[in-house]
Write a structure and sequence with these properties.
The chain has 255 residues and is an alpha/beta fold. Strands 2-1-3-4-5-8-9-10 form an 8-stranded mixed β-sheet, with helices on both faces. Helix 8 packs antiparallel against helix 9 and helix 9 crosses helix 10. The longest helix is centred in the C-terminal third of the chain and has 22 residues. The radius of gyration is 17 Å and the shape is globular.
């Protein structure tokens, strides 16, 4: 099982991320046996990413300082053939975010883009009403646009929501499951993006490994919701569920 494989490999995941979720991401990676590092200063990111097995770029609390660091780290990761994951948080909320995402996509090759439907719309230039960093409202041919995006950037595209969609531009599938409590606390999508970095390098079939990750992340949400209905406890329960899945695999899915 993918989380068990990650625990066995204990990869170092370099996260240039946002301060809202950094602690939750770090604890989530630790829960599945990965090692997080959250370095984002331009004076050290190139050296740090050279030590890592995957790089996450998350624009949730974007600023010019971290934008420079993202570019430097991304280029070094490409040079060293280290996979880079993009989480374009709130890409359509402001012009600055949209332009930064376009700039990064032009300058860095990403192995995975993990986003919600509103962020997909922003990248694909589809008219959409973004609600801050939440997905917002609009109309989009999700499958078609995700496949075109995957083909254009030669990467795997993951659109998460009530159902998740994953495509590498050739193969595609929908993944069901999960629990609505995942939408009621911050950071669950950002953590998934970080875990995608660990999953991408866990074997020789990144598409399959990421599809399995989406499946078991939704199972972790179901496990967490079975232990608490209190939203304040849900994040802790989710970390516990990820830990159990990484230690016991399918056996921990039996409630």
């Amino acid at each position: 099982m993918i989380f068990q494989t990650i625990r066995q490999q204990q990869p170092l995941i370099h996260c240039i991320t946002n301060y809202v979720v950094a602690n939750f991401q770090a604890n989530g990676l630790l829960a599945i046996g990965a090692s997080p590092v959250m370095a984002d200063d331009s004076r050290e990111v190139e050296e740090m990413v050279a030590l890592a097995q995957a790089l996450l770029i998350n624009i949730g609390t974007l600023n010019d300082r971290t934008k420079e660091s993202m570019l430097l780290a991304g280029k070094m990761a490409n040079k060293l053939r280290i996979p880079v994951i993009l989480d374009p948080v709130g890409a359509g909320a402001t012009t600055y975010r949209k332009e930064t995402v376009r700039y990064l996509l032009e300058e860095v090759h990403f192995s995975v883009i993990r986003c919600n439907v509103g962020e997909l719309a922003a990248i694909a230039n589809v008219d959409w009403q973004q609600k801050g960093v939440d997905s917002g409202n609009g109309s989009i041919a999700l499958e078609e646009e995700a496949i075109l995006l995957a083909q254009h950037y030669q990467c795997i595209v993951i659109i998460t929501g009530e159902r998740d969609f994953i495509t590498d531009g050739v193969d595609s599938q929908w993944i069901n499951g999960g629990n609505m409590q995942m939408t009621e606390v911050t950071g669950t999508g950002c953590l998934l993006s970080a875990i995608c970095g660990a999953a991408y390098i866990a074997g020789h079939n990144p598409y399959r490994q990421l599809a399995d990750t989406l499946t078991y992340y939704k199972k972790a949400a179901v496990l967490a919701s079975a232990f608490t209905s209190d939203i304040g406890d849900f994040q802790i329960a989710l970390l516990n569920a990820l830990y159990r899945l990484s230690k016991d695999g399918e056996a921990s899915c039996i409630l």
